[in-house]
Design a protein that fits this description.
Aspartate Aminotransferase, domain 2; 15 helices; Aspartate Aminotransferase, domain 1; alpha/beta; transaminase activity; 4-stranded mixed beta sheet; 7-stranded mixed beta sheet; 438 residues; aminotransferase; PyrdxlP-dep_Trfase_small
């Protein structure tokens, strides 16, 4: 490739915190469900740019909207001027959101959406403290970092503010055999909340609880509906606002528009981003008009948020999701993928749990002998799969879970293609383990 010398020396001018991420694949083009590498190979993308390109890479309708939008406006800023794209998108987005979530503060990212959600809750409730859940990931800026606990390294030396408390996330795997997992998780939650309120903070000091309705970076943990319902009940009892971070679970990923709809619990505030604009930077803090109007003028603002070009891309993305019925495709194709992965589990001892809802699928990698989480094994499997032409990503506290989050436009044939490559990678990995034991 022409820029090989730049690629070889990227650490000279790109911060390694991002430039050294996996797999650092040099590409020259993206299309649909594929990346096209500078090596001339085609790579089936099961990462969607980390749950961003739900309608597929460079969907023609999105590309056309960006090109036309560039002939109108490249920059707002919203408030100084006003423009059609942000208003039209807000109007149309409200139609697919749960409950009365119909008023928006547009920013540039998921982290900004989380920061806005917490600020809004504190303004409305006039209470200082926030409760989050262990294993949750809400971003890496300082406010969001205070509620992110998926990995301790994200918080190292950062000294997040002391205005947050953590509760354990639903311990689905810890449920004793034979016991109902929903009842077990609710019982544990009640104990944990009682302990927190008795020993650390009074409920009338807590402005909000924030959580991912399905853990993302923390390992793709899907909690029982009863557990989320109990959280809703606790928030209502004490006048605490409930914030859902749906940055990764939104826009059809779970088979519904949002995970809150799939799991039957409505939050008071929602943070959304990632798949909103098919790769252009856009995020939003969402609440009801009643809550949002309590945010004083000038208490929160943005220069680039709600960019007119990003809003054009977002409007086109929303239209494609509707026209191609992609949430339903996620539900149907996701069920097929899950069935095939369970068949794969019978064949490979390196596969632990398979956790899925729609096309949000986590595949736990374990040591075949000890059955413990195997992060090193996972990375080997991902490297082998990439050599076969399939790009997967990872998550989990110990980097032990393969994320399988392809574009929602993916077909069963492409799912089969990807799972076949994963099967081959698992076989090579396990053969390598056996040869090392000899």
């Amino acid at each position: 490739m022409e820029w090989q010398h730049l690629y070889n020396n990227m650490s000279d001018f790109l911060a390694p915190t991002m430039a050294k991420d996996f797999p650092n694949l040099p590409v020259e083009k993206e299309e649909g469900c594929y990346y096209y590498g500078t090596d001339g190979k085609q790579y089936l993308d099961f990462s969607s740019g980390i749950a961003v390109t739900n309608v597929g890479h460079r969907h023609p309708k999105v590309v056309d909207a960006v090109k036309k939008g560039a002939d109108e406006l490249l920059h707002g800023p919203s408030g100084v001027i006003m423009y059609e794209s942000i208003l039209q998108y807000a109007n149309d987005l409200a139609e697919v959101l749960p409950g009365d979530l119909d008023c928006f503060f547009f920013g540039n990212s998921g982290t900004e959406a989380v920061e806005g959600a917490i600020k809004l809750a504190k303004h409305v409730k006039e209470r200082p403290y926030v409760i989050s859940f262990t294993g949750g990931f809400h971003g890496r800026t300082m406010g969001a970092l205070g509620v992110s606990t998926s990995k301790s390294k994200y918080r190292k030396f950062m000294q997040p503010n002391g205005l947050t408390y953590q509760l354990p996330y639903a311990d689905v795997k810890g449920c004793p055999e034979g016991e109902d997992v929903g009842k077990y998780c609710v019982k544990q939650l009640e104990k944990d909340v009682e302990n927190l309120f008795e020993h650390q903070v009074t409920p009338d000091e807590v402005s909000c609880m924030i959580l991912e309705p399905i853990l993302g970076e923390g390992g793709y943990i899907i909690p029982p509906k009863e557990w989320l319902q109990k959280i809703r009940e606790i928030c209502d009892e004490y006048g605490i606002l409930l914030i859902f971070d749906e940055v990764q679970t939104g826009f059809g990923r779970t088979g519904e528009w949002f995970a809150s709809q799939a799991l039957g619990v409505e939050p008071d505030i929602m943070a959304i981003a990632k798949a909103m604009a098919s790769g252009l930077p856009l995020g939003a803090t969402v609440a009801s008009k009643e809550l949002m109007q309590q945010w004083p003028l000038g208490s929160h603002a943005t220069t680039f948020g709600g960019n007119p070009l990003a809003c054009r891309a977002a409007e086109a993305t929303l239209e494609v999701l509707k026209e191609e019925n992609l949430p339903q495709n996620a539900k149907e194709v996701g069920a097929y993928a899950t069935e095939r992965l369970h068949e794969l589990k019978e064949k490979h001892e390196s596969i632990g749990d398979i956790r899925s809802i729609g096309l949000l699928i986590g595949i736990e990698v374990v040591d075949p002998v000890t059955k413990q989480a195997d992060g090193d094994g996972l990375m080997n499997i991902l490297e082998l799969a990439l050599e076969k032409g399939a790009l997967f990503y990872f998550c989990g506290n110990k980097t032990e879970v393969i994320r399988m989050i392809p574009p929602l436009s993916i077909t069963k044939e492409q799912i089969e293609e990807g799972i076949t490559k994963l099967d081959e990678a698992l076989t090579l990995h396990e053969e390598g383990l056996k040869s090392n034991q000899v």
